[in-house]
Amino acid sequence: MTRIDRNAPVMVTGATGYVAGVLVRKLLEAGLTVHAPVRDPDNTDKLKYLNDVAANTPGTLRYFKADLLDKGSYAEAMEDCELVFHTASPFFNSVEDPQKELVTPALEGTRNVLETANRTPSVKRVVLTSSCAAIYSECADLDKTPDGVFTEDVWNTTSTLDDNPYSYSKTVAEQAAWEINKAQSRWDLVVVNPSLVIGPGLNPFATSESFNIIRRFGDGTLKSGCPRFGIGAVDVRDLAEAHYQAGFTPEAQGRHIISGHNTDLFEMARTLQDRYGDRFPIPRRPLPKWLLWLVGPLVDKEMTRKLIARNVDLPWKADNSKSKRALGMTYRPLAESVNDFFQQMVDSGQLKPRS
């Protein structure tokens, strides 16, 4: 069992990101000292959301200059920390160079952080933000699971650099983390594997793909209909709680699926209908799979026929019981998460009602 001294600082990589920002807020609300390595500690515009939280919470926030791909740059920020949260990793579906934009930052960044942990005597535990993408590539992968459900024992074996490179990047990064962890015995590794993260972020203009998905529900892109694309979903606030518990629960170990709901994109959109349907072009019907098959690749290069065949109208099922049992997790209703996220986009001017 690993007990973390709450008087010691904790380090959070990617602190300006969507997931990490909400985690930093939770840590500061708990009165902890947070070390935040960032590319430019003097960029007050990029840090303003974190600074606002720090000014109104009992914890202490300290910035350090570091870069994910600059070996050794995390050493100063990690000094004296017993607990390290490694959340930094890109989430984009559309990229020009998957190796450069997805795989290298995820893999080499993880190696950089964990090798620094090897050289930092104070570190007792690393909590890694992986993904359910390291467990599966497509909904059709359910057919290969022992009981027709994704569990922590399942690994993604089908993604490649050329086929679903985001899932590939998360898989190889987590595998590298376990290899580095098992080669030493001083610090333990606890992994959280979230499904699609939704809900209001600290920065309403964050660049995560999650924002693009929710935005399309209200900007008219899907006004003719929305595919029943199977997916899991978890609220970013619940995910922050999962990280916190993964860090401070002495008995925590191994991987944890962090997902509140087995759902699909149309079901997510439908939760917005009552509150926003009269003011925004919320999709009202599911798009037939045959129609997506015909026109999908013509209107969206990412919507390949293979992607449609292996995800649309197919269920996504994951077992989140370990997170409830080991981390004490409970999950918000799906409608609350989607509606709160959508409202944040309205409040920030990213979605405008019909005139």
The CATH class label is Alpha Beta
Radius of gyration: 20 Å
CATH topology: Rossmann fold
CATH superfamily name? NAD(P)-binding Rossmann-like Domain
Which outline best applies? Answer: globular
Main sheet: strand order: 3-2-1-4-5-6-9
Instruction: Supply the number of helical segments.
Output: 13
Structural class from helices and strands? alpha/beta
Percent range for β-strand residues: 5-15%
| Strands, total number | 10
N-to-C series of helices and strands:
EHEHEHEHEHEEHEHEEHHHHHH
Arithmetic mean of pLDDT: 93
Q: Biggest β-sheet, characterized? A: 7 strands, parallel
What's the architecture in CATH terms? 3-Layer(aba) Sandwich
Overall helicity: 25-40%
> Could you tell me how far the N terminus lies from the C terminus, measured between alpha carbons in angstroms?
59 Å
**Whole-number tally of structural domains:** 1
Keywords: Oxidoreductase
InterPro entries: Epimerase_deHydtase, NAD(P)-bd_dom_sf, NAD(P)_dehydrat-like
GO molecular function: oxidoreductase activity, acting on the CH-OH group of donors, NAD or NADP as acceptor
Pfam family, one: Epimerase
